[in-house]
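User: Please predict the structure of the protein below. I'd like the answer in structure-token form so I can feed it into my own downstream comparison script.

Assistant: Understood. Taking the following sequence of 67 residues as input:
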Amino acid sequence: MTQQVLERWMPSNIAELRKALDDIMHYVGSEGGDMDTVYVDLRDLALVREMLTDGSIAFNIVVRQNR
């Protein structure tokens, strides 16, 4: 089976992640693909709350790669 990287995204926040997903859906649709055949190759996706040194809270989306 051959693979070809069609596009790459490097989102740094949730808005950029949503935009990347929208772009992917548009790209697949324009290629005649079906959303049911777009698979996500990852082990898990987690939302992690982090207390910063200044006392503020940040949220991180952590993706672990499927190996």
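That's the full token string. Residues 7 and 54 are 38 Å apart (CA to CA).
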